[in-house]
Amino acid sequence: MTEFSFRNYTGIPYLIGHRGALELYPENTLISLKSAIEMGIEIIEFDVQMSRDGELIIIHDDTVDRTTDGKGFVYEMTTEEIRLFDAGTKFSPSFAGEKIPILDEVLKLSASSNIALNIEIKNGPVFYENIALKIVRKVLEFDLRDRTVISSFDHEALYDAKKVDSKIKTAPLSVNRMHRVCDYLRELKADGFHPRWNYLTEELISELHDNGYFVNTWIVNEESQFTKLAEWGVDAIGVNNPLKFKKLTEHD
Ligand code: G3P
Ligand code: MG
Question: From the alpha carbon of 196, which atom of ligand 1 is closest?
Answer without folding.
Answer: 2
